Amino acid sequence: MYFATILGVAKTAALAAILTPGHPQTKEWAYAGLVFVYGGAATSHLAAGDGPDKWAMPLFFAAATFAARAWLPQGNSTTAALGGSRRRYA
Hints:
Structural class: mainly alpha
Low-confidence stretches: none
Strand content: under 5%
Order of helices and strands: HHHH
Distance between the termini: 60 Å
Number of strands: 0
Mean pLDDT: 84
Largest sheet: none
């Protein structure tokens, strides 16, 4: 029961980090954490031999997290915040 509470608090904190403006590196960590949580849940259900009724929804949420991160403007990424690409224009 304690683990479920900890995961709920972590998901709420990740959502708050994603929705608040600024702090691009914190957003990257929040997205990564959500992928680990949902991907781990799907993998655990698959390893236990559970059917799609158990692992399909966590897998969907992991995919949705990837999609949401991919659709963000490039200016919100950590590399953009750290100075962007290393290309030199002549």
